[in-house]
Design brief:
- The complex is a heterodimer.
- Chain A has helices at about 65-75, 75-80, 95-110, 125-130, 145-150, 155-170, 185-195, 215-220, 235-245; strands at about 5-15, 20-25, 45-50, 55-60, 60-65, 85-90, 110-115, 135-140, 170-180, 205-210, 250-255.
- Chain A is of the alpha/beta class.
- Chain B is about 50% helix and about 10% strand.
- Chain B is globular, with a radius of gyration of 26 Å.
- The chains are: A alpha/beta, B alpha/beta.
- The interface between A and B is large, with 51 and 36 residues.
């Protein structure tokens, strides 16, 4: 049974896939998105975090996949009909064998499984877990390879090839884009991203996630400088959403299918 | 805007003005708002039957005083209202020495005082109401018929002194009520003559005619039935607060169907009349749920009641009984209105666990289905059961504190030794409660008979015996434990930090508790203890202890011998006593400061998990159900920005009930609004929160109580600041239309 490092396990999660879910935040991520809102999830090892007025706390705990599954099963009765477990991060597939054991354990208990992943890695990692995952939620941060590398530290070329192979498997997918003002909130980015998305066979929806500053306090507590970003205006959000909608995609803004308030 | 809508709007505004006036005149009220209005400034009245101290007891004095109060009660008529009358006084609270903690009682129980004080027991001795009438008796007989019934019984019991005193007092009560209605009808008539607006004049003439008839006759129409219920409610409130309603949809359905068939009413008018009934008072009503045979009772009237509450948008205590056969549309609409109005109605009860629990007392499931939600936390058989519901409480945190103090005098301390001491004191506390309940049942009829509720019960009038003294069929007495999470978390903290991890010693713990975590070392230890395993986390030490304590509490309460087959039904409920109970308890090993409130009902303490998962709370509370028909309510605070759709809330409710839950109260309040309302309550005169089983205008609560509600909502928010977040966590309300 694999052991892994998680930063937190959140029950009653309504943000990470359909229905009521338990989200397992796994520690460690190969990307370094400059706007990241979970900086405590970047390093693979447990680390100390210093919140003002509180004793230092250890972020990240070693836990067996069995223990994670037991925690997931606590809310089994609440998952019906479409909820379940979501592995998030960090990048869950940074801890491939651990993720696999959790997914297998949950599937064997009849729990719906999902992962939130960057797809920026070798196909073999994804292939190893495919039989045990019902839904793959992936991020499309930037279509342009150079800009992607500039803002996340890695190329997106693996993402595109993984996406087309995933599409061939017929897996259910959700695509998301964190929208950062001045970085990726342009019509050109949106055209390129949605052109790719419109070719997917089983895309449930495409969700736009305007940048939020909820993670900034954590940067200070980790002794790092918080990034200074802002969200696009509601008017921009609506314009970008409409680009996706003209390609017949179901586009949500922060979970809602309505127009942003101007 | 049609006529009904405009009238409701005016009635609502007037109600909010009256609530503000009550606050100005009487100060904060940490309880239900009720439907009362302030009496005229110059109104004076004195009990005619009282001793030199103002005290009174016994049926005769209560009958005379109540009759006089009714005969002097100001008349209240609003030309917009479908129903006449408002109540203004509570006779029971006019007695000297009456407090929420202790009722006047002219019989000596000083032998219990030492234990009652030691364990902070709310004994229920001398407490009143908290069981329910069966309105069907009154709707069938009317005030005239009730009078004839009492007179006939009096004639049969001429040689029975107890019966004669009671029944003569009942006649006094009836005479007083009839006088009040007669004067109201006359006033409506006079107002109609003077009214120039034709619509208002028409309404006033209707009110005059309806109430003239109702002095004697049983109600014949839907509106008359609602007016009759309002009179009983107002009279019963005036007598001793009462507040228990009934299965309102089923009570009114025959009247509605008759009027509809005769072309006398339509849905719009019926909704308006129901809104006026809900405005008249905040009585507890159940809707939906199974009948005796298990068939769902949902009717068009159930829906109209929900719509009436939705239209009125004021404090309201409707409970939807959720069972396997519940009309799906009623359930969906109920949850939708909870989310739309954000005024903490309706509440939801879980039929399966309630029926199975009550049946474990040896009663049939048919009977159990008739036992319905008519109070803060309680179920009762209308007209058939006496219960002291929500009146008898044991402060488990105090029992724990007694055991903790004793621990260090008895040798080597250990969690096991502490648990032994705690359970032995719990046994003593429960024994003390049982003795108090029996003492109350022996004497209460000579202190404060239930003159109003007796009228709508099966037995008291027929037998000439008060409901508290053998008048009714069933005596199932509720005993609630309070402070479960405080105690479970305290045991867990000691077991984890002192014994398993050895991060502090017993003497260090003792010193920290004795000094209320004073100084830097105290602060450090408090942080250590308060971040230990909590009840509600799931599979934690706190959960284990909550289970152990529940099991022991239930078995202790069930084991106490009671005379005449009376039963004690264990529950977890603190009502709004968390503040008062907390004041008597020093610091506790869960990191709670001396004097701070104890935990709320059966809920985990706020901050029990970093994510505050509602599923975790729902599961934890389901896991500690005592299971004999008394409840352990689940209190949920939901932030409207958390994507918690009506469908999700519906799933939470269904799952909680499937796990064994009995009753759910939900506040949907956004943190920003509650913080602002706490700072400037007067800016939010119509913000209603469910404090516990009851709801109240937030602005009418004392600052201390407001803080309590605020803490429940904000502690979680503070805890959540350092959580990993999903990129999608922007509050949708802030971004979207």
């Amino acid at each position: 049974m694999a052991i892994g490092v998680v930063t937190d396990i959140q029950r009653f999660s309504l943000h990470d896939g359909p229905g009521i879910r338990t989200t397992v935040f796994m520690k460690g991520c190969p990307l370094r998105c400059t706007w990241c809102h979970n900086p405590e999830g970047l390093a693979a090892a447990p680390e100390l975090i210093f919140y003002p007025g509180r004793p230092p706390e250890l972020v990240g705990r070693l836990i067996t996949a069995d223990e994670v599954v037991a925690e997931v099963l606590e809310d089994r009765i609440f998952y019906e009909p479409e909820g379940g477990v979501t592995l998030s991060g960090g990048e869950p597939l940074q801890q491939g064998p651990f993720a696999l054991d959790i997914l297998q354990g949950c599937k064997q208990e009849g729990i719906h499984t999902a992962i939130e992943t960057s797809l920026c890695y070798d196909w073999s990692r994804l292939e190893a877990i495919l039989d045990w995952v019902d839904l793959i939620v992936f991020d499309l941060k930037l279509a342009d390879e150079k800009t992607h590398r500039r803002y996340t530290g890695v190329s997106n070329s693996a993402l595109w090839s993984n996406l087309s192979r995933l599409n061939a498997t017929g897996k259910t997918l959700i695509a998301r884009t964190p929208l950062i003002a001045g970085v990726n909130d342009t019509a050109e980015e949106m055209e390129r991203i949605t052109a790719k998305l419109s070719k997917l066979r089983k895309l449930l929806y495409y969700e736009l996630l305007p940048y939020h500053p909820l993670g900034t306090g954590k940067y200070a507590a980790l002794g790092r400088a918080a990034p200074a970003f802002s969200s696009p205006s509601p008017a921009t959000l609506n314009r970008l959403a409409d680009i996706g909608r003209t390609r017949n995609l179901t586009v949500l803004i922060s979970g809602i299918g309505a127009t942003a308030h101007e | 805007m049609n006529n009904f809508d405009a009238r409701i709007d005016r009635l609502r505004e007037k109600k909010l003005a009256q609530t503000r006036a009550k606050l100005r005149r009487f100060g904060p009220q940490d309880e239900d708002d009720y439907g009362s209005v302030p009496p005229p400034e110059d109104f004076t009245w004195r009990c005619p039957a009282a001793d030199s101290t103002g005290a009174f007891h016994g049926a005769k004095a209560w009958g005379q005083n109540f009759r006089s109060l009714m005969e002097h009660h100001p008349v209240y008529i609003d030309p917009d209202d479908a129903l006449a009358g408002r109540w203004m006084f509570m006779l029971s609270r006019m007695r000297p020495g009456n407090t929420v903690q202790r009722a006047p009682f002219p019989f000596d129980y000083s032998s219990l005082h030492e234990r009652q004080g030691l364990y902070d027991v709310r004994s229920g001795i001398g407490k009143d109401a908290h069981f329910a009438p069966d309105y069907r008796i009154g709707l069938g007989l009317g005030w005239g018929g009730l009078k004839a019934k009492v007179e006939a019984s009096l004639a049969r019991h001429a040689a029975d002194a107890e019966a004669c005193e009671l029944l003569e007092a009942e006649l006094d009560a009836l005479a007083g009520i009839r006088n009040w209605i007669t004067r109201t009808a006359a006033a409506a008539h006079a107002m109609a003559e003077a009214e120039s607006d034709p619509d208002r004049q028409h309404n006033l003439r209707d009110l005059a005619a309806i109430n003239s008839r109702l002095v004697e006759m049983p109600p014949a129409t839907f509106r008359e039935a609602c007016q009759w219920l309002a009179w009983f409610n107002m009279a019963s409130r005036t007598y001793n607060r009462d507040g228990a309603g009934g299965q309102l949809d089923e009570l009114l359905r025959p009247f509605y169907e008759r009027d509809l068939a005769a072309g006398r009413i339509d849905e719009e008018e019926a909704t308006f009349i129901l809104a006026c009934l809900l405005l008249n008072d905040t009585h507890y009503y159940q809707i939906g749920g199974p009948d005796r045979g298990g068939c769902d009772q949902t009717s068009v009237v159930s829906f109209l009641l929900l719509e009436a509450a939705h239209r009125l948008r004021l404090s309201c205590n409707i409970t939807v009984r959720v069972h396997a056969g519940l009309d799906e549309q009623l359930f969906a609409r109920a949850v939708e209105i909870l989310c739309l109005d954000r005024l903490a109605y309706p509440r939801f009860s879980g039929d399966h666990a309630l029926v199975e629990g009550f049946a474990r007392n040896g009663f049939s499931r048919e009977l159990a289905r008739e036992r319905i939600a008519l109070g803060c936390n309680w179920m009762t058989l209308p007209g058939r059961e006496y219960g002291l519901n929500d009146l008898v409480k044991i402060n488990l945190a105090k029992v724990f504190a007694v055991a903790f103090d004793e621990l260090f005098a008895t040798g080597a301390p250990s969690t096991e030794a502490l648990a032994r001491l705690f359970f032995s004191h719990l046994d003593r506390a429960v024994q003390c409660v049982a003795e108090g309940v029996n003492f109350h049942l022996d004497h209460q009829y000579r202190n404060e008979p239930e003159l109003l509720l007796n009228l709508l019960c099966y037995g008291p009038i027929e037998k000439g015996r008060d409901a508290s003294h053998g008048g009714v069929e069933f005596y199932n007495l509720a005993v609630d434990g309070a402070g479960l999470a405080t105690v479970a978390d305290s045991f867990a903290a000691i077991e984890q930090r002192v014994e398993a991890e050895q991060l502090l010693t017993w003497p260090q713990l003792r010193h920290a508790i004795a000094t209320d975590f004073n100084g830097p070392e105290g602060t450090r230890l408090r942080q250590l203890l308060s971040r230990s395993d909590r009840f509600g986390q799931g599979r934690s030490r706190g959960d284990k202890w909550a289970g152990v304590i529940t099991e022991r509490f239930v078995s202790t309460v069930r084991a106490v011998p009671m005379p005449a087959g009376y039963k004690l039904l264990p529950g977890w409920f603190s009502w709004a006593d968390t503040v008062r109970f907390g004041r008597t308890v020093g610091a506790t090993p869960n990191g709670r400061h001396a004097g701070a409130p104890i935990s709320h009902g059966a809920n985990p303490d706020p901050g029990f998990r970093r994510d505050g998962a509602l599923t975790a709370i729902a599961k934890a509370v389901a896991d500690v159900q005592p299971g004999f028909g008394n409840t352990a309510p689940l209190q949920l605070e939901i932030d409207p920005g958390c994507r918690c759709s009506p469908e999700i809330i519906g799933r939470l409710l269904r799952a909680h009930f499937a796990l064994g839950g009995t009753l759910v109260n939900i506040n949907i309040v956004d943190a920003k609004k509650i913080r602002e309302a706490h700072r400037c309550p007067e800016k939010f005169p119509d913000l209603v929160v469910r404090v516990t089983g009851f709801s109240a205008y937030f602005a009418s609560l004392s600052p201390e109580f407001r803080q309590l509600v605020v803490n429940r909502i904000l502690t979680q928010e503070d805890r959540a600041a350092d959580l990993p977040t999903c990129a999608a966590e922007t509050t949708p309300q802030e971004a979207l239309v």
